[in-house]
Amino acid sequence: MPLCPDAEDWLTLSLLPGLGCVLIWRLVRQAGSPGEALRLGARPSAVPGIGPRLLALMADSAQVAVARQLAQRELERIERLGISLLSLYSPDYPELLRTIPDPPVLLYCRGDLAILRQPTVAVIGSRAATDYGRRMAALLAAELVAQDITIVSGAAYGIDAAAHRGALRAGGATVAVLGCGVDVVYPRAHADLFQELAAQGLLLSEYPLGTPPEGFRFPARNRIISGLAKGVVVVEATEKSGSLITARLALDQGREVFAVPGRIDSPKSSGTHRLIQQGAHLVHGATDIVEALAWESGTGPCGLAEKAAATGPSPQVSPAEQHLLLSLDAYPRDIDTLVRMTGLPIVDLHTLLLQLELKGLIRQLPGQLYERRLMD
Question: Which residue range or ranges hold the DprA winged helix domain (predicted)?
Fold first, then answer.
């Protein structure tokens, strides 16, 4: 796995307390290299943001020696785990990410680096997503990877996981940007997904190995999700969703923002509808994204709703079960609604619902609501 030139010096700088991405980048740019910055060749007192405390830190040989020892141990772990380390000067560092105001100085990468050279779209949304939201995220990801577009997201519950899985199941490329070290699985329930991402996609983080998933790290990683992509798609989000923060970051970075519409009475779609009102592109399918980003589309205009409706039921279901499944589309429905839609006696309806639930095709929600189970 490739290591950036001057990897030990880059790591030493990054492990000095109080030096963030912006200050490190200013120091290295003035000095010409991380090694020169550590030798004070950059005259850090002349660098904006370097005050007396940081100047004293840079001049403290004992502090620098401690940071270098930590860097050497980090390099040993990196090499042992087969992880790639990219710096801002590395040829494999993503060009789009390099252009944001505060690009990460170092990127830890676990997986296929070639993925970073492909056109990229971010697909994000609510952690507590509905089945509709997860299904739309998976279908949209599958449509995009079919056109050799990489999907980037954050490996969280809900929309993120659905987007990654949709891309992987379609045989495409996907990048998970983490708010912890690339050797830390979070959430723990996604251990299988992380294995797939490391084997077929890419896990990426700016944080050292072993870094725990602390809350303040996730807003910081969102700038990387939007920074890697030419466009950001919000599939499902409430008015106060963190996904809207990522959408604002995307706008600040000069990226295009897209939103998938949902039901007008669903709080889970209120944030996406607000984005559309504010000028975000309404997404009906992958073609909308490809055309807005001026990429060539290799497929015909297939909308998400049409593709979802065209998804046939499992061959293991009976005609009566198939009839009921077609009445359970994007959102949960109650018993009375299903009786009206299907015309089935309530006794027969309960039997069919139980059979479909046992087959794993639907699930019951509180309040005797039922929905199709298309994505876990």
Answer: 309-368
CA distance 352 to 54: 69
For strands 150-153 and 256-259, give the pairing: unpaired
* Beta-carbon count within 10 A of 267 CB: 13
Radius of gyration over every alpha carbon of the chain, rounded to an integer in angstroms: 24
CA 119 to centroid of chain Cα atoms: 15
Q: Residues 74-91: what's their mean pLDDT?
A: 95
362 and 370 Cβ atoms separated by less than 8 Å: yes
Could you read off the pLDDT of 178-188 as tens digits, one per residue? Answer: 999 999 999 99
SS3 content of the chain, % helix, strand, coil (to 5): 50, 15, 40
pLDDT digits (tens, 9 = 90+) for 213-232: 998 899 899 999 999 999 99
- Other residues' Cβ atoms within 10 Å of the Cβ of residue 17: 9
DSSP annotation of 233 reads E
The verdict on whether omega for the bond into residue 366 sits within 30 degrees of 0, i.e. cis, is no
Q: Give residue 302's Cα distance to chain centre.
A: 24
Q: Rounded to two decimals, what is the model's pTM?
A: 0.81
Q: pLDDT at residue 305 above 70?
A: no
Residue 37: name the closest of 74, 20, 12 by CA.
Answer: 12
Tokens of 344: 């089935």
Is residue 67 a contact partner of residue 15, using CB atoms and an 8 Å limit?
yes
Please list, in sequence order, all residues whose beta carbon lies within 8 angstroms of the beta carbon of residue 224, skipping any fewer than 6 positions away.
97, 104, 177, 204, 206
Task: Classify each residue of 25-36 as buried b or exposed e, where b means 16 or more C-beta atoms within 10 Å of its C-beta.
Answer: bbbbebbebbbb
pLDDT, greater one: 357 or 247? 247
Euclidean distance between the first and final Cα of the chain, in Å? Answer: 33
Helices 52-59 + 61-81 axis angle, to 10: 70
Amino acid symbol at 157 = Y
Q: CA torsion 203→207→212→215, rounded to 10°?
A: -100
What values do phi and psi take at 133, rounded to 5?
Answer: -60, -45
